[in-house]
Design a protein that fits this description.
Helix content is 30%, strand content 41%. It is α+β, with helices and mostly antiparallel strands and 152 residues long. Strands 1, 2, 5 and 6 form a 4-stranded antiparallel beta sheet that branches. It has a 3-stranded mixed beta sheet with strand order 3-4-7, with helices on one face. The longest helix has 25 residues.
């Protein structure tokens, strides 16, 4: 059953594939601490939303040059790869529901950590760099003019 149909206009320009090891502990006073050890594998993708480009973002300076303002790069998505990710150890849990809650929590934490790592590795800067490498020559070939690509 279709829940939603969306128009798409985001151009994916860079994808970071990553792995990280996460440990989450819940300290308890009487019982042993609850602990989960998880290896997260996934990807974070940087893109530019081309639907945000307006007519006023294209400025013709003179007969032989054009400046194009692209929207700021953004994170398209962060996706955890469930096939490559693995729970290595769960300890200190007494009830099965505790284990389930810890696994659900670590999956959410893993996606946040992948996103954080991608930002530290300058994914948005790389997205911007790739946009210039793709758009400038393409627009110059189409228009026959010198094109400068800038970002809002």
């Amino acid at each position: 059953m279709i829940e939603k149909i969306s128009n798409m206009g985001k151009l994916e320009l860079v994808k970071y594939s990553m792995k990280d090891v996460l440990e989450k502990k819940e300290l308890r006073m009487i019982l042993p601490d609850k602990r989960i050890l998880f290896v997260a594998a996934g990807e974070v993708t940087g893109c530019i939303d081309l639907t945000k480009i307006k007519k006023e973002d294209i400025i013709s300076s003179n007969d032989d040059s054009v400046t194009v303002f692209l929207p700021a790069p953004e994170i398209c998505y962060t996706k955890l790869d469930h096939q490559r990710s693995k729970v290595y150890d769960v300890s200190g849990v007494i009830f099965p529901s505790d284990s389930k809650d810890m696994v659900e929590g670590i999956y959410k934490l893993a996606e946040q950590k992948l996103l954080e790592n991608a930002k530290q590795q300058n994914i948005l800067g790389k997205t911007q760099e790739n946009a210039k490498l793709i758009f400038q020559p393409m627009l110059e070939n189409i228009s026959g003019k010198k094109v400068t690509v800038k970002f809002r």
